[in-house]
Amino acid sequence: MRVLVCAIGDSATLTQARASDSERGCVRSEGVDDLSELLVLLHDAEEPFVSLRARYRVWRHRERAHAAFLAQAKRRGSTTFGVHGGGGAPLDPESVELVDIWRVCPDRARVAYSGGDRDGSVGVSVGERWWHFDQRVGATSNVEDPSIGSGTGAEFAAFLEPPRLLGALRFAPLGRGTRAGREVIVADAWPRLEPPRGRPPSFGLHELGAGGDRYRLEVDAERGLVLAAHAFADGEPFQVVEAVEFEVDRDIDADMFVFRPPEGEEIRRPGHRGEVRHHASIPEAQAAMPFTLLVPEHMPSTWTFDCTYSGPSDRPPSSPTVGINYRSDSGHESLNLILRPAGADPHRTDASDWREARAGEYTVRVHGRGERGPQSQLRLEHAGTSVLMLSDTLSGDQLIALAAMLVPAPAASHL
Fold first, then answer.
1. Is the dihedral of CA 266, 271, 277, 278 positive or negative?
2. CATH code: domain of residue 328
3. pLDDT tens for residues 29-73?
4. Whole-number Cα distances in Å, 397 to 175, 329, 364, 371
5. Same domain (yes/no): 213, 328
6. Residue 195 counted as domain residue
7. Which DSSP state fits 318?
8. How confident is the model over 400-412, as a mean pLDDT?
9. How confident is the model at residue 196 (pLDDT cuts 50, 70, 90)?
10. pTM metric for this prediction
11. Quick one: which H or E segment has residue 66?
12. What mean pLDDT do residues 353-378 have?
């Protein structure tokens, strides 16, 4: 009979059981001191520094990371979308980027990316105000409306705000090491079982590697900050985040928290895109769009709809879009219809395992509620138009019946 110690929440529970040394989340009794120290470090790291300057190296294997994310979504019964770039050279199978971080408590932060997909991106936050620049979107800020939130200034939260990990992981210390000139406690960690409803405890693990079934962590032995995280799925590493420079409580020039956009860049309000019109009629939307809108020829007389359209935008790149929300008077049934030009849809769904069906003159791909997630979805492309149907209340077969009634929108009079 071996004495095992299992990490439960913020404390350790002694359990006598017949188990192998490899049992998840448990260590043999001689590891009690390291486990206790690790849990105390993570628990007490509420305000582990006054100022921080760090550089992290982030390596990611794209295919494995994507597979881990999809596997996690499937376990949760979620529906996933991927962003596909149109054309261009294929992406490298692996990516590497360096991320520089400056923090001064309580509310100043700066982050800068070099290499990888976000090369040249910069973000600054001071209190509730934030500024951000990347090549795709340009320079944006919430200075005109501080109520607009952003993740700017909250990067690497799982690494720099360690208490959030306690409820999400079970730990097994492995020993000691050194990272970026600092002593670390090395530990394996496993995600806790997710509840059948509500927000899963592993929500905060996204930065460690979304979908990981095991993590190898290196935790600063003085401050409790995470200096490295290796994410694994089915025994294969798919993401590694490692501190290559790390300093705490050193003076940082206040000028680091002044945002200066690149020359020629105008700072804009976030969410800027082409003309947006709410509560439009369908004929008005059709007149504004460069493609044919396909809408149901008939809907029940007890249903109402609301139509919104938006024009194209260069930064960020977005296609003209029409969204129509149909809802029964009782509110118990609803349908969302999203229309874009064929081939311009930025939300390409992996529909490889959706069933193909005929809907009148159209060939569609569909899945019903409960097959891939809690929502029924249907997709089709026809004569230059991309159609996406979404419903939390209708079945897949009901979406097929509605798709069979799609016709070009009228040019005059309200529907």
1. negative
2. 3.30.200.100
3. 345 578 999 999 999 988 899 999 999 999 999 999 988 888 877
4. 56, 22, 11, 12
5. no
6. yes
7. B
8. 87
9. low
10. 0.67
11. helix 62-76
12. 83
pLDDT in tens, 322-345: 999 999 887 788 999 999 998 765
Domain carrying residue 194? 2-45+163-223
The two structure tokens encoding residue 211: 């979908």
**How far apart, in whole angstroms, are the C-alpha atoms of residue 233 and residue 72?**
10
Share above pLDDT 70 across residues of the chain, in percent, rounded to a whole number = 80
202 and 315 assigned to the same domain: no
Total domains in the fold of the chain: 2
Count of residues for the chain? 415
In a domain, 253, yes or no: no
Buried b (16+ CB within 10 A) or exposed e, 4-28: bbbbeeeebeeeeeeeeeeeebbbe
Residue 223 CB neighbours (<10 A): 21
Pair (280, 403) in one structural domain:
yes
Buried b (16+ CB within 10 A) or exposed e, 172-185: bbbeeeebbebebb
331: CB partners within 8 A, 6+ apart: none
Task: Name the token pair of 234.
Answer: 């089915």
CB atoms within 10 A of CB 336: 16
Residue 337, pLDDT score:
94
Residue with tokens 């009979």: 1
